ABC transporter ATP-binding protein (Actinoallomurus acaciae), 263 residues
Amino acid sequence: MTNPPLLSVDGLRVTFPVRGSLRRSRFAAVEGASLTVEENEIVAVVGESGSGKTTVARCVVGLQRADAGVMTFAGSPLPARRTAELRRAIQMVFQDPRSSLNPRMRVGAIVDEAWSMHPSVAPPGPRADAIVAALADVGLEPDVADRYPAQLSGGQCQRVSLARALALEPRLIVCDEAVSALDVSVQAQVLRLLLELRTTRRLSMLFISHDLGVVHQIADRVVVMRQGRIVEEGTADAVFSAPSHEYTRALLDAALELNDLGT
Ligand SMILES: Nc1ncnc2c1ncn2[C@@H]1O[C@H](COP(=O)(O)OP(=O)(O)OP(=O)(O)O)[C@@H](O)[C@H]1O
């Protein structure tokens, strides 16, 4: 028998109130979206701004309630109200590394706090050593533990966000535009790190991005969203070399044009 996917999302629908509407009407930000992420797989969700990518990500981590749809994790239903164990197993890394870290806490305390919230994975020995090890895992020097987020670069902050997520030994990391705010060279370093971690930690990732160049570097499979619906899905190679949907072709053309402008 084959294992169930690590994450399965089936028929997800999310609506929001239409702003300014007198009749309290709602619109569907996500309409019937279905996708899977297998163990050790990186699945990217791409699409233009407003296509519903972040809303899907927020549903997966339990930050947003869905109107309809079924989600499972390792074969078991994902309840709207998450257990501590599920909150630990599915971690999210956000776009803006600085604002996702508490500015008043030193980096060491930020990592330590994650363990205090999830004692089931807290290291048994001295915390200081474990913090240094957690930082080393994401390529940060020990002295970073004593610094505040404002004293770090954007790339270093994003590595701290990753260290905090990884300290909880998650099975799935949901990256929402996790490298979009970084310079291109720093982006490449963080993408390399994510690929390394996928191998060393056997991680799975749901990688939300509007940047097809980034997605090409990291994803095994790509899901294309437009106006709340999934319009195309396939291996990254297939989607990039022979997109079947007109919208995907337009996204790829737009990305190529941007690339040309940058050269
Ligand atoms: N909390 C909310 N209340 C009302 N409307 C919302 C809310 N969150 C998202 N939306 C709307 O739902 C639609 C999808 O938004 P979403 O953020 O999921 O798209 P996205 O593809 O991630 O876009 P972006 O790349 O710009 O973040 C948009 O029209 C957005 O304005």
About this structure: Residues 16, 29, 47, 49-55, 210 surround adenosine-5'-triphosphate (CB under 6 Å). The first strand starts at residue 7 and ends at 17. The CA atoms of residues 45 and 205 lie 11 Å apart. The chain has nine helices and ten strands.
